[in-house]
Amino acid sequence: MSDVPEITPEAVETAVADALTAVADATDTTALKHARSAHQGEHSPLATLNAQMRYVAKERKAEAGKLVGQARGRVNQAFAAREEELKAAEDAARLEAERLDITAVPSRARAGARHPVALMQETISDLFVGMGWEIAEGPELEHEWFNFDSLNLDEDHPARQEQDTFFVDPVERHLVMRTQTSPVQMRTMLERDVPIYVLSPGKVARTDEFDATHLPVFTQAEGLVVDKGITMAHLKGTLDHVAKQLFGAQAETRLRTNHFPFTEPSAEFDLWHPTFTGGARWIEWGGCGMVNPNVLRAAGIDPEIYSGFAFGIGIERALMFRSDVQDMRDMAEGDVRFSEQFGMVI
Prior knowledge:
The chain is α+β, with helices and mostly antiparallel strands. About 40% of the residues lie in helices and about 20% in strands. It is built from twelve helices and ten strands. It has helices at about 10-25, 30-40, 45-50, 60-95, 115-130, 145, 180-190, 230-245, 295-300, 315-325, 330, 335-340; strands at about 135, 140-145, 165-170, 175, 195-205, 215-225, 250-260, 265-275, 280-290, 305-315.
């Protein structure tokens, strides 16, 4: 492996500097696209350094992971800012060139419908924004380090086997379709300063059967809090508040001991659904717990000073609870009659 670049601060800083120079030199979105391919693509210097994580000694993985992760974050932000700037300039020029008479009679078209799952995700996101949280997003095609290693899932953990995870060829790139939105939480901890209060909704993929209660591609919303003095009481209070906002004043949650690598202690949480069809009852809703100190360390956060909690809920499952949908397949098959039951919302 003598030709493999070593992950050093100098190597990472050189890759970042070259990328930032390319960003500044791009004069239009086409040039920026070429620069992005050269500095963020699979053969870019940063991607090459990131691929070397599997050769890094175990005791240096957290340090090297944070170094590369923060560098990629800086480059991502630079490209995003420059793209927004260039698009704004190009849009302004296009609008001027395509000036239209807005008094002309418009053509009439039948309005479409927002999908109920998208509306449910928006409802839950708005709930957390109202609590002062931020919404965080990340890529659906994710590196194994973010999806597994950084979240305290060992190489022999069952979730890393092919029966649970979609691996993307070629396997030496170590890319997977993310199995949860927890990688967004790790990216957030690497890129933002504490305190952190974020919700990360989005699509995830697992090799589940396509049946009434499972989908191979579904939608999650995962919450993360990292701050001083955070306890399980804060987690329970947050879950109860969400339950009451979505399902009524009598709704509440309860915790049952479980194990997840990302959290310690961990719990499954159930929802007391007061208006459930067939009568009020407890229904399993998601997983939660206190963020594992190993995960905080991987993000460069001192667990002796900060603590946090995390939880995950299924958007489709929440829609089933709220609207008495009996079969998850109805949400994925694209029949417009399913969406029309929820009203035409633009």
